Amino acid sequence: MTATPAPAIEVAGLEKSFKDLRVLQGVDFDVARGSIFALLGSNGAGKTTVVRILSTLLRADAGTATVNSADVAAQAAQVRESISLTGQFAAVDEVLTGRENLVLVAKLRHLKDPGTIADSLLARFGLTDAGGRRAGTYSGGMQRRLDISMSLIGNPPVIFLDEPTTGLDPEARLEVWQAVRELARGGTTVLLTTQYLDEAEHLADRIAILHQGRIIANGTLAELKKLLPPAKVEYVEKQPTLEEVFLAIIGSDAAAPGAPATTGKERP
């Protein structure tokens, strides 16, 4: 019998406060290897705080977290070697060309044949024709794709995307969605934070809803939809949207302070 591989990310009882503000109040979740996991929540829910802890930029007050089997507190250097983090805005050098941005990062990581690495990533993300142009001339979606491709240099097994489509127009968002799907197809584990319900619905294998510092629901889209009453059947069956699920969950008693977190197999 083949053993089940350990999750790429494991979080248990994570707590964090900033002075009197309790941002995280016991967060628990796992992320399977090679999957896309969406951490969904409103502004101020604590999504970025979770990412900063997992990427070793912030220390938790309590709880444990491992990334690629390394403890984020005790083995921070090992964690950093296995991850990449893309923030809410593209971090590309607009003076350099797309290809030069990639070559620069490859050189900074002391990798062999940075030109070949750059060309491969340009092709992978549909940027070959634009590789010789200054990144400052790219559209928002193209800059985001370049930013994500830069994050993949060195083949990190885990990548954090913190609200990667913030400020992008609908066409650019679709470009980024395609890039994220490409990551998962290549075997990369993706933890995606977002406040956009359709983004989580279209991209994620599993979705966790973070509300008032707690995970109040966690499951596949199908499992989360089961948390609502059965659809009424008239002429056709209307399935609930993720927006309806989200609003129903955060408005339920499960969102009250001290209420237990629910899984995709439980009712809140």
Principal-axis shape: globular
CATH class call of the domain at 9-84 and 158-165 and 188-255: Alpha Beta
Cα-atom radius of gyration: 19 Å
> Can you tell me the CATH architecture of the domain at 9-84 and 158-165 and 188-255?
3-Layer(aba) Sandwich
Write down the secondary-structure element order.
EEEHEEHEHHHEHEHEEHH
Characteristics of this structure?
disordered C terminus, 10 strands, 268 residues, Rossmann fold, 32% helix, alpha/beta, 23% strand, six-stranded mixed sheet, 9 helices, four-stranded antiparallel sheet
What can you see in these coordinates?
The chain has 268 residues and is an alpha/beta fold. It has a domain at 9-84 and 158-165 and 188-255: P-loop containing nucleotide triphosphate hydrolases (Rossmann fold, 3-Layer(aba) Sandwich), CATH 3.40.50. Helices cover 32% and strands 23% of the residues. It has 9 helices and 10 strands. The strands form 2 sheets. Strands 6-7-8-3-9-10 form a 6-stranded mixed sheet, sandwiched between helices. A hairpin with a 2-residue loop joins strand 9 and strand 10 (214-219). It is globular, with a radius of gyration of 19 Å. Mean pLDDT is 87; it is low at 253-268.
Write the layout of secondary structure elements.
Blueprint: E1 9-18, E2 21-31, E3 36-40, H1 47-54, E4 62-67, E5 70-71, H2 76-81, E6 83-86, H3 98-108, H4 114-124, H5 140-151, E7 158-162, H6 170-185, E8 189-194, H7 197-203, E9 206-211, E10 214-219, H8 221-225, H9 242-250
Parallel strand pairs: 3-8, 3-9, 6-7, 7-8
Antiparallel strand pairs: 1-2, 1-4, 4-5, 9-10
Helix pairs in contact: 3-4, 5-6
